[in-house]
């Protein structure tokens, strides 16, 4: 049986974005209460209390008692909206329920036994969770907080399916009840190791090697061509036609 939570709500008459913004500035959360053949009612809730409730997993799958003035209704949390980047609850949808009418809602899956499964303990596999929650159908009094998935008997490359989950009395999985596929919810798989291969650099072809070599008369990288001065040296003057090359005067030695 799910836990019990009580919400104190106040009726609100103002509608629109501006009215909702003023409510949030005053520490309230705009909400709506609807269903069970009654007229929808716009209410406001305490923001801090609602924020704490939403952080509790049990709150999402519990029958809530919503008190508005002197009246009290049984309801479930159908939806809620958060600010895109602030920890602010923007709006809450509460759906009234009837004790005699079945309801359907999502409940979380709790996985256990994965650490002792033969596929993990003996074969070194890893546990993979393929689903985190499942939609169920039941009367309000039978609503569970969560469903347990037992992985303790799994060998390597085996899985647990929806039909393998042990259900409390009066609870059914909605998709199976309507002829849906028996999907896998958890498995033990092998660990894949990806080896990195160093890239192989191909040797240049004969024609490419010849093209890369400097042609006759061309300088190698960093060398000057014939008749050209190296960087930082003055070019040597060439003799004019018909003149003998000038000889450099011998250097005088000091006495």
**Which descriptor suits the 3D outline?**
extended
- Kindly, what is the distance between the CA atoms of the first and last residues, rounded to a whole number of angstroms? 118 Å
Strand content: 25-35%
Indicate the radius of gyration in whole angstroms: 40 Å
Q: Runs with pLDDT <50, length 5+?
A: none
Report helical residue fraction. Answer: 10-25%
- Largest β-sheet summary: 6 strands, mixed, barrel
The main sheet orders its strands as 1-3-2-6-5-4
Instruction: Write down the secondary-structure element order.
Output: EHEEHEEEEHEEEEEHEH
Q: Would you tell me the overall average pLDDT?
A: 84
What structural category arises from helix and sheet content?
mainly beta
Number of helices: 5
Number of strands: 13
Structural key phrases:
255 residues, mainly beta, 6-stranded mixed β-barrel, 4-stranded mixed sheet, extended
Question: What's the SSE blueprint?
Answer:
Layout: E1 4-11, H1 17-25, E2 28-35, E3 38-46, H2 47-54, E4 63-68, E5 71-82, E6 89-96, E7 103-112, H3 118-121, E8 126-129, E9 133-138, E10 147-150, E11 158-161, E12 172-173, H4 174-177, E13 184-189, H5 206-212
Parallel strand pairs: 1-4, 2-6, 7-10
Antiparallel strand pairs: 1-3, 2-3, 4-5, 5-6, 7-9, 8-13, 9-12, 11-13
